[in-house]
Design a protein that fits this description.
A hairpin with a 2-residue loop joins β2 (179-180) and β3. This protein starts with 12 loop residues before the first helix and ends in a 15-residue tail after the last helix. Helix content is 71%, strand content 2%. The strands form two sheets. Strands 1-4 form a two-stranded antiparallel ribbon. Strands 2-3 form a two-stranded antiparallel ribbon. The chain has a single domain (31-335), classed as ABC transporter involved in vitamin B12 uptake, BtuC (Orthogonal Bundle). It is globular and about 65 Å long. The protein has 357 residues and is mainly alpha-helical.
């Protein structure tokens, strides 16, 4: 049932006390290595491409283009906290952005009702995924792959392979086109989601329950945590954020087509998996996830500006995903070895003395 596990590896103050500087730095590299690498890439590309890379225009382009992927990464992160994976973040956005347009252009819904309907349908999809995983006991990878394929087929059936085009109200397109402090409003959606999820994950009981379920669901259940309810809730939250990302994509593209959306699945998962290798190595976390998305955005933007071929982006995403999973697996094995090293040696069992009456 566990597609991934959730175990933190970040060193505590007691772990760092008394260590020489070199060993202390080595212990902190897994925590802050990815953010430092991101800053290094930004510096390198800024030196190589001083006319195009370190510009406000490029910053706006990166924030605008990658905001949807960032939201999908945050959506995928929530089930990962409980040790599950949700592939419908990539499939769902296909039908959500199509519905957000077709409900207005073909069926006469106003934009507010459209947004509410799409969000509710996103929650419904998450509920179905949660029931399949927890009630039907289907592995989360298989369950979400199946439901994702079904809704993708529904998107193809609904569009008949054609584009959905029509006049959209300015109030709806403003969901994406508005600028705040000179930056795309979508970037602030991501920031708002990140802050909320960070508070929930790190400071509220529900976040601790999610991580406990991801680390050891049986132990969590024995401690009175309703694993079924929280896992289903994680999928519902993921579906809600995925549906919102589809609405933002619809406001951005203004056309609906089934060929758009699937390309977001891989970078969204890469961002979430990369997030488990930094800030809190071995455990998916909000700021690590955003850092993973940023390093993907910076790397791809810089490579493309250097004249990289059209296939560089999927190649970069795929290679980074393999590296991220490898690092995450190493972090979990390291965590296990550290735990075993800290456990005191077991006392040899003593054979009870046998006395005769």
């Amino acid at each position: 049932m566990q597609s991934i596990q959730s175990n933190a590896l970040e060193p505590t103050k007691s772990d760092l006390e008394g260590l020489p500087f070199a060993r202390r730095a080595a212990r902190l590299v897994p925590v802050y290595g990815l953010p430092l690498l991101t800053l290094g890439l930004i510096a390198v590309f800024s030196l190589i491409l001083p006319q195009t890379f370190p510009t406000m225009l490029n910053l706006r382009a990166i924030l605008g283009e990658k905001s949807v992927i960032a939201m999908l990464s945050l959506a995928a992160m929530i089930p990962m906290m409980t040790g599950r994976i949700d592939l419908t973040v990539g499939y769902g956005i296909v039908i959500w952005h199509i519905l957000a347009i077709s409900l207005q252009t073909l069926y006469g819904f106003d934009w507010v009702t459209t947004v509410i309907v799409v969000l509710l349908l996103g929650c419904l999809l998450g509920l179905i995924n949660g029931l399949l995983v927890e009630v039907a006991q289907i592995d989360s990878f298989i369950a979400t792959l199946g439901t994702g394929t079904v809704i993708y087929a529904l998107a193809l059936w609904h569009t008949e392979g054609r584009q959905i085009i029509g006049m959209l109200p300015n109030a709806f397109t403003a969901i994406y086109t508005i600028k705040l402090l000179g930056l795309p409003i979508a970037a602030f959606y991501v920031l708002g989601m990140a802050v909320v999820l960070w508070i929930v994950a790190d400071y509220l009981p529900i976040g601790r329950y999610f991580y406990a379920i991801g680390a050891n669901p049986r132990a969590a259940a024995l401690n009175g945590i309703s694993t079924r309810r929280y896992v289903i809730g994680a999928f519902v939250a993921s579906g809600f954020i995925g549906a919102f990302a589809g609405i933002v994509l619809a406001a951005k593209l203004r056309i609906g087509q089934a060929s758009v959306g699937l390309e977001f699945l891989l970078p969204a998962l890469v961002g979430a998996f990369l997030g488990s290798t930094t800030i809190k190595p071995g455990r998916v976390n909000v700021w690590g996830t955003l850092c993973g998305v940023v390093i993907l955005a910076v790397g791809i933007s810089g490579i493309q500006q250097l004249g990289g071929a059209f296939y560089i982006e999927p190649l970069f995403n795929g290679a980074t995903l393999l590296i991220a999973i490898g690092i995450a697996g190493y972090a979990q094995r390291k965590r296990t070895s550290v735990r075993h090293a800290r456990q005191p040696a077991a006392m040899p069992e003593q054979t009870p003395a046998i006395t005769k009456d």
